[in-house]
Specification:
mainly alpha, Cytochrome Bc1 Complex, Chain D, domain 2, 4 helices, globular, YmfJ/YflH_sf, Uncharacterised_YmfJ, DUF3243
Protein backbone atom coordinates (compact mmCIF):
# COMPACT_ATOMS: atom_id res chain seq x y z
CA UNK A 1 0.00 0.00 0.00
CA UNK A 2 1.82 3.11 -1.24
CA UNK A 3 -0.53 5.40 0.68
CA UNK A 4 0.91 4.07 3.95
CA UNK A 5 4.39 5.41 3.20
CA UNK A 6 3.54 9.10 3.61
CA UNK A 7 1.74 10.44 6.70
CA UNK A 8 -0.05 13.28 4.86
CA UNK A 9 -1.22 10.93 2.09
CA UNK A 10 -2.40 8.48 4.76
CA UNK A 11 -4.43 11.19 6.50
CA UNK A 12 -5.92 12.29 3.15
CA UNK A 13 -6.83 8.67 2.35
CA UNK A 14 -8.50 8.24 5.74
CA UNK A 15 -10.26 11.58 5.31
CA UNK A 16 -11.66 10.43 1.94
CA UNK A 17 -12.94 7.21 3.51
CA UNK A 18 -14.49 9.15 6.40
CA UNK A 19 -16.33 11.48 4.01
CA UNK A 20 -17.57 8.50 2.00
CA UNK A 21 -18.90 6.86 5.16
CA UNK A 22 -20.64 10.07 6.22
CA UNK A 23 -22.20 10.54 2.77
CA UNK A 24 -23.41 6.92 2.92
CA UNK A 25 -25.29 7.82 6.11
CA UNK A 26 -23.14 6.06 8.71
CA UNK A 27 -23.49 7.67 12.10
CA UNK A 28 -20.53 8.74 14.24
CA UNK A 29 -20.68 5.69 16.53
CA UNK A 30 -20.51 3.29 13.59
CA UNK A 31 -17.63 5.27 12.07
CA UNK A 32 -15.73 5.23 15.37
CA UNK A 33 -16.26 1.47 15.73
CA UNK A 34 -15.02 0.91 12.18
CA UNK A 35 -11.97 3.05 12.96
CA UNK A 36 -11.18 0.77 15.89
CA UNK A 37 -11.52 -2.30 13.67
CA UNK A 38 -9.15 -0.72 11.14
CA UNK A 39 -6.72 0.02 13.97
CA UNK A 40 -6.87 -3.60 15.11
CA UNK A 41 -6.25 -4.82 11.56
CA UNK A 42 -3.33 -2.46 10.99
CA UNK A 43 -1.76 -3.31 14.34
CA UNK A 44 -1.94 -7.03 13.56
CA UNK A 45 -1.11 -7.06 9.85
CA UNK A 46 0.77 -3.96 8.70
CA UNK A 47 4.27 -2.83 9.61
CA UNK A 48 4.33 0.96 10.25
CA UNK A 49 5.92 2.82 7.34
CA UNK A 50 6.78 6.12 9.04
CA UNK A 51 7.45 7.61 12.47
CA UNK A 52 3.88 8.73 13.06
CA UNK A 53 2.50 5.28 12.31
CA UNK A 54 5.14 3.74 14.59
CA UNK A 55 3.99 5.95 17.48
CA UNK A 56 0.36 4.99 16.86
CA UNK A 57 1.31 1.32 16.65
CA UNK A 58 3.27 1.50 19.90
CA UNK A 59 0.41 3.28 21.68
CA UNK A 60 -2.11 0.79 20.30
CA UNK A 61 -0.04 -2.17 21.48
CA UNK A 62 -0.09 -1.03 25.13
CA UNK A 63 -3.64 0.33 25.20
CA UNK A 64 -6.62 -1.58 26.54
CA UNK A 65 -9.80 -1.76 24.46
CA UNK A 66 -11.25 1.47 25.89
CA UNK A 67 -8.01 3.32 25.20
CA UNK A 68 -7.85 1.88 21.67
CA UNK A 69 -11.37 3.20 21.06
CA UNK A 70 -10.19 6.62 22.25
CA UNK A 71 -7.20 6.49 19.88
CA UNK A 72 -9.52 5.52 17.02
CA UNK A 73 -11.90 8.37 17.88
CA UNK A 74 -9.03 10.87 17.92
CA UNK A 75 -7.82 9.61 14.54
CA UNK A 76 -11.31 10.18 13.13
CA UNK A 77 -11.21 13.75 14.45
CA UNK A 78 -7.71 14.24 13.05
CA UNK A 79 -8.72 13.32 9.50
CA UNK A 80 -12.12 15.02 9.41
CA UNK A 81 -10.69 17.97 7.48
CA UNK A 82 -8.46 15.88 5.22
CA UNK A 83 -9.17 14.34 1.86
CA UNK A 84 -11.78 15.37 -0.72
CA UNK A 85 -15.08 16.61 0.52
Amino acid sequence: MGVLNNWEQWKDFLGDKLHQAQKAGLDQEVINNLAQEVGDYLASNVDPKNEQQRVLSDLWSVANEEEQQAIANVMVKLVQNNGSK
